[in-house]
Target: Transcriptional regulator
Amino acid sequence: MLESLITSKTRIKLLLKFFLNINNQGYLRSLETEFNESTNGIRQELNRFENAGLLLAESEGNKKLYRANIRHPLFKDLNSIILKFVGVEELLERVIDRLGNVQQVYLEGRIAQGLDSDIIDLLIIGNDIDRNYLSSLVEKTEPLLKRKIRYLVFEEADAKVYVERHHKELVLIFNSPE
Model:
């Protein structure tokens, strides 16, 4: 879907990198290695995003460190589009309502790092989660998303240590209003 709207593969990779996980940052050279693309193409797209105010750049010596501008008026919209692109939003709509007492859902793994992946890794925190129902929902949802879904389920009391230990690799995608 996103590929038909945005024809630049580099632009899509940058959107995934910076607008899925707000903690992601990158230097031009590290992005070159990560994306396996030329620095010229990446530099052009970074400049476009920076000129549009979508990315912020900080100079560190002779390098520029890029990160998403979370105060940009379009940040939330872009984040939502990226979540839809990777299939997380549809998954949440299907799963959360009927699962039990879900407190939080985190995205982890390659997608949380802003890299496209055939696998969606989720951390689900809550009490009285119906694991059999979750398993059947995942089984039904995977073909629709054309991605494998892996998940960890923690009771609320047990999740704190895991979240503290892995907080830099986690992206909160659902937080119960209760």
In short: DSSP finds eight helices and seven strands in the chain.
